[in-house]
Every structure is written in structure tokens, then in C-alpha cells.
Write a structure and sequence with these properties.
globular; 5 helices; single chain; alpha/beta; Rossmann fold
Length: about 160
């Protein structure tokens, strides 16, 4: 049982049912592999989802669900606009993927101990965009909540350019 997930959020459902939200609730999910957590579905028609993952095979099934107000894109989010090499481990960890050929020892020590876990890594070139760019282009609205799960690449997703 996850302690932070209320399976029966009566207040949230009441707020949505009464139309008390002044604007839609915008949820951005970076690393949406597998879809959004059910906790967000209680927002019903007020929820706007923008999900990102660099792998088309993780985005395709979500797109085919054709959920209203859900937009999924097969792009990576990071600290640059363009393309980047992306590493997908073999069968040992089919749901994990990284921007480094081998994740840091600290972050993934339990996975990196066996050499066989890193055989068969595929390198793919994937499109990458910055959150700031997507916002400036109007591709995404300002977010109410951003979930980021991208295997140690979170600082790059949140990197803000220096302004002087």
C-alpha cells in the first residue's frame, strides 16, 4: 500500500464535480513509461496530461488509448533542443533506459555489479527538447505538477539557463 495515495479522494472529486477549479489541472509526466499514476485520474475531465518518454514503444500504447485530454510524445526532455544518444539495456532491465552508456555507480550500484547486465545495450538517437522551449512554443501550458522519473537525468530536465 502506498501511503501517499488516497484511493477515495472525496474532496478532490467534490471539487471537480462542482466545477470549482478555475482552470484545468495540467500534469506533465517526464518518463511516463507505463502511463500516469491512477491518483491523477480522480481529477476527471479537469485533468490535462502531457507525457514524455524517448521510446516510441512506450508512447505508442498510451497514445492508442486515445484518452481525452492526454497528449503523449516520444521525445526526451533535457537541457538542450536537438538529438542525443540514448542507451537501452538488453533483456536484464527492459523497462530502464539511460542517457549514459552505464549509469552511475551510486544511482545503480545493484544493477551495475554484473557485467552481463550491460551486454546487448542498444544505442538510439532520440529527439530531445527543453521544457522551456516547449512552453515558449505553446506545445505545453504552464504546469500545476511535474513528475520526473528519468533514471538520473532529472537535473538536466530541470536545468534553467543562466540569465544575467
Amino acid at each position: 500500500m502506498e501511503l501517499s495515495y488516497n484511493h477515495d479522494p472525496r474532496f478532490t472529486e467534490w471539487v471537480v464535480r462542482k466545477g470549482l477549479l478555475e482552470s484545468p489541472f495540467v500534469f506533465i509526466d517526464v518518463g511516463v513509461q507505463g502511463g500516469i499514476h491512477p491518483r491523477w485520474l480522480h481529477l476527471g475531465p479537469s485533468l490535462r496530461v502531457y507525457g514524455f518518454d524517448p521510446l516510441e514503444e512506450t508512447i505508442g500504447p498510451l497514445t492508442r488509448l486515445n484518452l481525452p485530454n492526454h497528449t503523449y510524445q516520444a521525445i526526451a526532455l533535457g537541457d538542450a533542443d536537438g538529438e542525443r544518444d540514448f542507451f537501452v539495456p538488453g533483456e536484464s532491465f527492459p523497462r530502464l533506459h539511460f542517457f549514459r552508456a552505464r549509469p552511475s555507480r551510486i544511482r545503480c550500484a545493484w544493477r551495475s555489479t554484473l557485467r552481463s547486465n550491460w551486454q546487448g545495450i542498444q544505442t538510439r538517437r532520440v529527439p530531445m527538447r527543453k521544457l522551456d522551449t516547449l512552453l515558449a512554443e505553446g506545445a505545453i501550458p504552464p504546469a500545476d505538477f511535474i513528475k520526473i522519473d528519468c533514471e538520473g537525468f532529472e537535473p538536466a530536465v530541470l536545468k534553467v539557463p543562466a540569465t544575467f
